[in-house]
Structure formats: structure tokens, C-alpha cells
Design goal:
290 residues, Arc Repressor Mutant, subunit A, D-Maltodextrin-Binding Protein, domain 2
């Protein structure tokens, strides 16, 4: 039974125009003229029997039907892009797609990619970020995730123990002779990990005596940067803060740390046959001293 697929060139033109809100911008993306995009969209509308855009001077507005169609098509095209990328990675064996949270990518993985390229110059790496709570994308070759290592359906290899410790700029560190002095400075927090401070303070016997009050950030990296700029004291998570501590941009005013799980390299069973993954696994284990 044949598929009743719509006008595919028209779909591409419409989705790009709807996303950009402009035939000109869509044409630039698709490497055709704005008039060609407009013509393809018009043909699509004729075949569907409904208008997708309201064409006004210098403006392009989606009709209700067009908005509904755009939402569905964007998801389909996103999935098609992921599927294509996954197929290329499996077929060519020379593309590695790593899914990782933005803070880990910025503060640990990306600064070490030059070493990766020296280790495996023929393998193209693509970093995809989605946050620690994001679902594993099947287009990824592997991912790096914080937790206890118990993800059903995945093989998890431990990489780095995660430790929490207060960090700040050198000038603020000079004001903190003991943990109790934290009551006098802003304590920077991370929205998805607001219990970090309570865990560390409880371990120092300060539960109930000091409340974490201060600006809240979406990511550890943002709080870390604010701490380096003198805004307050952040709860640093290794390995995000390791390079900054080594370079002196951040200081850990107290030696005490508390554990926060482990960083794992995770992948679906069967990736062991992928040469790009095998090379990456060997490299990253070497980088963390395993």
C-alpha cells in the first residue's frame, strides 16, 4: 500500500518560512529565492485546500491551520534530523555524538576536546546538550550523566566522583575564616539543586543556623561564574570547578566536601561495536585517570 505523502518540497518551504516568519529568510536557509519559497508554499496550500499564511505587506502571519501544521511538522523534521544523524553515526562509524549537560560540557568536556582531536583526529565529535534531567536521545552515541549508575537499559561506566564544596573569588575567601562566617555573605544557589547548601551545612553541624539566601541560577556554571565575579559564595560541584580552582579564578575556603553521586559514561548495549565510541571511551577513561 503506497503512502499518501504530501508535497515534500512544499513542506520544507512552509516549515522554514513558518519558523523564520519570512520567505526571504527561508529562501536563504534552503538556498533558493524568496519567490521560489512563496511559490512552493502556494502549491502546498492548493494541494491541501486550505490557507497556511496570511500574506500582509512586510509581514507573514500563520493562520490557525498553519500554526497547527507548523507545530506538527517541526517535531517531525526534528525527529528526522535526529534519525539521520544517528544513521550517519552508525553507518560511517566516524561520527561521535555525545549528550551532556551544559555545565559539564562548558567546564570539563569542551576544554579537553583539543586533546580528543589529537587522540582521534579522524573522528568527528558532536556535543549535544540537554541537561541532567533530559531523556537520552537515541541519536546520541553516548552520554555523560550524574547519578548512582542505575539506569535501566544502559551500560554505565563510572568516570568521576562528584563532590560539593563552597567556592568563591579570592577576595571573598579572605573574609571566611570559618564556615560560620557564611551567614554574612550571599550564598548562590542552583535552581535544580537547592538542597546542595543544606547538605553541606548539615555535614558541618550548621543545619538551622545558616539559611542559604542569595541569587538563584539555572546552571552550576552560572553560579560558579557569579562567585568568581565576587557576587557571593557558590556551592561548587566537581569537576565543574576543578580547572577554575587550579587556575586560581576560584578558591575553596574550606576543605570539607560532601559527596553527590558519580559521573558516568552511559550508552546503549551494542555501542561497543562502534569504533568511534570505543576510541572515546578509552580516551575519557584515560583523562579521568582510570
Amino acid at each position: 500500500m503506497s503512502r499518501a505523502l504530501p508535497f515534500l518540497n512544499g513542506l520544507r518551504a512552509f516549515e522554514a518560512a513558518a519558523r523564520h516568519g519570512s520567505f526571504a529568510a527561508a529562501g536563504a536557509e534552503l538556498h533558493v529565492s524568496p519567490a521560489a519559497v512563496s511559490r512552493l508554499v502556494r502549491l502546498l496550500e492548493q494541494r491541501l485546500g486550505i490557507g497556511l499564511f496570511e500574506r500582509r505587506p512586510n509581514r507573514l502571519l500563520l493562520t490557525p491551520a498553519g500554526e497547527s501544521y507548523r507545530i506538527g511538522l517541526s517535531g517531525i523534521f526534528d525527529e528526522l534530523e535526529r534519525l539521520t544523524e544517528a544513521t550517519r553515526a552508525r553507518a560511517g562509524q566516524r561520527v561521535l555524538v555525545v549528550g551532556v549537560g551544559p555545565s559539564f560540557a562548558h567546564h570539563w568536556l569542551i576544554p579537553r576536546l583539543a586533546a580528543w582531536h589529537a587522540h582521534a583526529p579522524g573522528i568527528e565529535v558532536r556535543v549535544r546538550t540537554g541537561g541532567a534531567a533530559a531523556a537520552f536521545d537515541e541519536g546520541w552515541t553516548c552520554g555523560i550523566r550524574l547519578g548512582a549508575g542505575d539506569w535501566p537499559g544502559f551500560v554505565a561506566t563510572p568516570l568521576i566522583a562528584a563532590q560539593l564544596r563552597p567556592v568563591c573569588g579570592p577576595a571573598m575567601a579572605a573574609r571566611l575564616s570559618q564556615p560560620g562566617r557564611l551567614a554574612s555573605v550571599p550564598l548562590l544557589r542552583v535552581a535544580h539543586a537547592e538542597d546542595d547548601w543544606s547538605q553541606w551545612l548539615a555535614a558541618q553541624g550548621l543545619a538551622g543556623r545558616i539559611a542559604a539566601r542569595g541569587p538563584v541560577f539555572d546552571f552550576y556554571g552560572q553560579a560558579q561564574q557569579a562567585a568568581a565575579d565576587g557576587l557571593g559564595v557558590a556551592m561548587g560541584l566537581s569537576p565543574y570547578v576543578d580547572d577554575a580552582l587550579t587556575q586560581g579564578r576560584l578558591v575553596s575556603p574550606f576543605a570539607a566536601t560532601v559527596p553527590k553521586g558519580h559521573w558516568f559514561l552511559i550508552h546503549r548495549p551494542g555501542r561497543e561495536e562502534n569504533p568511534a565510541f570505543v576510541a572515546f571511551r578509552s580516551w575519557i577513561l584515560g583523562m579521568v585517570g582510570q
